[in-house]
Every structure is written in structure tokens, then in C-alpha cells.
């Protein structure tokens, strides 16, 4: 455990500026060129901005929010606020107006640091609804020349104020850091809001430093590691690795040029460590599968042959069974012809370990990357646990578990199967919501995760699903919708799936197609289409998805096979409240919104009238009306016929 003198993030920054002075701290790709700041420069940038905030009246306990893509200045702004005893509040840059207004007002944000003109315009549109916001600072000056408001300043202007401020207040910055205590709140990290408005999780400096130390003990983290910061800053996972672990370990954080260039920048950088939610791994696998399908016949056959060999070897390794010499030699040949080139194309050639978390990753996706030589492991945590509970050891990676509880973190299973956690990372509480805090933290300090799970014989934690989502079919067969959805999403043609079956006679699913892969599939076959809605309702596409569901069903017990499905006329979207910003299905909302679809599944209907609402960033809405076919996967289920 770090000494008390290093139990705040600003003190870790001071230590790095002293001990790693000229080492690379953070990079940003701008106009195709990587720009690097050393730890001493990082410290100076934070100091100047913090003193500029002080000159503008920023006080201990006030909140500073950042909105935009991953940018060094937005990270510096958060640390600068913490140096002054303030609290950082990152928000999702793609949030609609209503979501932003809720978080900024709930957190009582005083200062907003926005990346560029686009984000400033969002604040402008809401300014009259934000009584606590008194200062807005923009990082990128492009397009801002004619913006004239007393409460609007540039990042560079604030830093210049800071340099002037220090001339009359020498030692102010260091004195403010010295006032900081480990129990002080460092950040509000808002939950994804799967069941309602998001809650403000209060994470202290002690939470942050303790979890960063735990991660550095569990993983091989080195000062010369390269980490790519591309995940939303509002997601706890980004804060944990980019800010907490970055400051604790001193590794280099790299910010891509834009969200659109992440894959290219990933290939160029070749990070040594990587964290990605399941959607990223699924997208990578889809890209590989599409490229393989589009390859000449010989290349495709070589890829499929060596992929099969790699996956056979990986299954044996996961089971603890020795890999035969012949298969080892075949995999060595595959490393030269297939596995190595694929890793290089994905930017994973130098990656020593990679983590996936935030939601379950389908076993097929997991096994593919492990088989191709990526040390991919599952990590489990929650915003309320500062992002970490368990992680898989290198030699015990398995798609069915989320690893062993980390050292210093206690896990127990309650009577009804709910996972309970106790650790130094347990949050201080929900901001302005003591009742909700008492509901999830008992008097002994155990945090109720809301996840159903168990500890397997090897001591690994297994998560089944959200406890409230686990149910049973009418015949009593256990039903875990997320498990079936992950199986379906292994298909490159399926972007999202929502499975129904609790207290029903059989399983049915709503499917959102992947526009890119399905669109490519249609174009190669000369099938014309004009829009997502048009494409999704083509008879050929329904048949394609039927075949993909049949492949999924082959791996499921008879009772939980998907019997009926419907193709949605649009993707599930966070803007429409169907998903959270971290791409988790808001099941209660979806079940209420699509009641006619669910009833049609089980009444034997072949068609249903579908009304879908599209929400734009500014809050405006449009409605689409359509009639959508409901398909049987393999003939009308007897269970449906009996209940029709």
C-alpha cells in the first residue's frame, strides 16, 4: 500500500514529475503527427491550468466537468480541479441535451471544459437551464473566433491567467495539493442508468489509488508501457486506466486523432496493454471475418484451416490438456502465415495483455482472440467498486469466468446468488442519494452488485447475468437472456439482440442487423436497398439471419433455443433510451416500448405494427410507422401453437 503521502492523484503527479521527469507521459495525434508531453511538462500544464482556475475563483469542493473526445487537456483539466480540492465530472460526448442537463444540474457543475465548437454549442443551447455553471472553457479554438461571452474562455487563456497568478501567489499550487486528503472525493462517475436516471458515484482519492495499486500487482504493468485512451472519458474504465493507473504506474497514455481513426492509430501505435469492452472485440472479429470472406478462395481456405487449428489448441490449453506435437507444429506454421499478420493488422502485435470488461464477452469471440495469440482476459468490476473486482491470471483465462478476485478484494455470494464485494475500492456513496447508497452498501461495508453469480471450484468468479434479469421459462428451465444474446452477437451480421422468455413458453428475439456487414453481403449479391429499414425487411436478409440463429441454436439446450425472431427497422440506440451509453440493453424500457412485438411473438402472429421513435441530439423526435414480419426459426413452435 502506498504511504499516506501518496494517496491522492495530485501527489502521484508530483512524484512522476520528480522521478520520471523526462519520460513520456501522454501523447496526442494531431494532423497525423504524434505530439508528446513528458511528466514534467504534464505537471506544468496541470499547474498552469489549476492556477488559472484559482484566479477565476474555483474553490475546494466545486465540480468541473469535461466533455469531448480523449484529449490531453481534458485529462489535465480533471487533475487540475483535483489539485485544488475540486471534483471532476466527465460526461459522454454523444449524450443528448436532456442527459447532459440532468448530469450537470444534478452534480451542480460550476465549470465545463469542452473540447471544441461542437461541444460548446451544446452548452450554449442549455446555458439557461444550467444555473450553477458560471464558466465554460474550450480546448480547440477553431471556429470560436466570433464567440463573445463573459463566461467563455479558451484553455490557453486560463493557463496564461495561471502563470500570472503564480507571480503573486508563489507556492499556492503546492499548498493546495498538500491540503488534499485520501478521503476527499476525486470524481463523480455517473452510472449507465439501465433502470432510470444515472446516479453520481462518488469515488475518493483513496479508492482511485488503492485500485490502481491492485491492478499493478495483478498485471505486468511497466513504466515503458503504451496505452491507447479511446474509450469515453465518462466510463469508469477509462478513468481507472488512463488517469488512476497512468498516474500510479507512470506508463504512457496515447490519445488518438479522432474516433474515426482509432483503428488506424491502434495499428500505428501497437499498444502493449489494452482495455476494450465486448463491442470493440466483436467489431474487430467482424472486420476479420468480413475480410476473410472477401478474400480469394485459396486465402480464405488457408485462413479457415489455420483458424480451426488454433481454436482446437486453445480449447485444449483452456482444459489443461497438453497440445499434441503435430498440432503445436501446425500452430507454429499458422503463426507465420495467419496469426501474426492478423494481430499486426489489428494493432495487437506488441500487446502483452488485453482486458475485456463492462459486459460479458461471447465465448466464441473470446476464444478466437486467445487462439490467435492475443493474451485476452476478462476483468470484472463496477463503477461502485472503482472498476475492479476480479481478473483472470494469464494461465487461467477461460471464457466462462471473470477470473479470481484480486488480492485485497473480498467476494461472497448471498443466499439468492447475488455477488457481494468488500474492498478499498468501494465508493463513498451516491451523490445526493443516501437512500440508494443504503440499499447497496450494508452496515458491514458489503456492496450488493446486483449480479447473479457463484465461485467455481478453482476459485474463479462466474457471473450469470444481472440478478433481476435471470428468470425461467414456463416449464421451469432457467433463462438468462444475456447469455443467449451474446451467442447471437457472435454472428458478424447481428449487431444487437434482445431475448425474451421469462415466464413464457419459449425464447424469442428481436434482432438489429449490422448495417455494414449485412450491407456488404447484400451488395455482393446484387440486392439493392435504400436505407437500414429497407435492408432489414428484405426476404433475403430474413433468411440470412434465420441461418445465423440456427447456428447459434446448435450450441444451446433445446429448451432455450430461439424459436421466433423479428428484424428491427433501426438499430437500438442510446439516444432513444433503448441502450445505455456503454451499450447495455435497458431491458425494462425495451420491454415496455415493444409490448406489441412481445405479445405477437407468443400469440402466433406473422406480422406486427411497429412504431419507432428516433431522438436527435437536440431532443427533437421523429416517428417511423411500419409493419414488420415475425419469422419462425424452424417452423411454428408447438409452445406458441398451444398458446395462440
Q: What does this entry show, briefly?
A:
By secondary structure, this protein is of the alpha/beta class.
Number of helices: 22
Mean pLDDT level: 91
Strand content: 15-25%
- How much helix, percentage-wise, in residues? 25-40%
**CATH hierarchy: architecture of the largest domain:** 3-Layer(aba) Sandwich
How would you sum up this structure, described in words?
This protein is α/β, with parallel strands linked by helices. The protein folds into three domains: 4-181 and 223-270, ANL, N-terminal domain (Rossmann fold, 3-Layer(aba) Sandwich); 278-422 and 447-465, no CATH class; 471-643, ANL, C-terminal domain (GMP Synthetase, Chain A, domain 3, 2-Layer Sandwich). The chain is built from 22 helices and 28 strands. A five-stranded parallel beta sheet has the order 4-3-5-6-7, with helices on both faces. Strand 22 (471-472) and strand 23 (478-479) form a beta hairpin. Helix 1 packs across helix 2, helix 1 (9-19) packs across helix 9 (236-249) and helix 8 crosses helix 9. The longest helix has 22 residues, at 297-318. The model has no long low-confidence stretch (mean pLDDT 91).
How is the topology of this model organized?
Elements: H1 9-19, E1 24-30, E2 33-38, H2 39-55, E3 63-67, H3 72-83, E4 87-90, H4 97-106, E5 111-114, H5 117-126, E6 135-138, E7 152-154, H6 155-168, H7 172-179, E8 185-190, E9 200-204, H8 205-218, E10 226-228, H9 236-249, E11 252-255, H10 262-269, E12 273-276, H11 278-294, H12 297-318, H13 325-346, E13 353-356, H14 363-371, E14 376-380, E15 390-391, E16 404-405, E17 410-413, E18 418-422, E19 429-430, H15 434-440, E20 447-455, E21 461-466, E22 471-472, E23 478-479, H16 481-488, E24 494-500, E25 507-513, H17 515-524, H18 532-536, H19 539-553, E26 562-567, H20 587-593, H21 595-603, E27 607-615, E28 621-632, H22 638-643
Parallel strand pairs: 1-11, 3-4, 3-5, 5-6, 6-7, 10-11, 12-13, 13-14, 25-26
Antiparallel strand pairs: 1-2, 8-9, 9-19, 14-15, 15-16, 17-18, 18-20, 20-21, 22-23, 24-25, 26-28, 27-28
Helix pairs in contact: 1-2, 1-9, 2-3, 2-6, 8-9, 12-13, 12-14
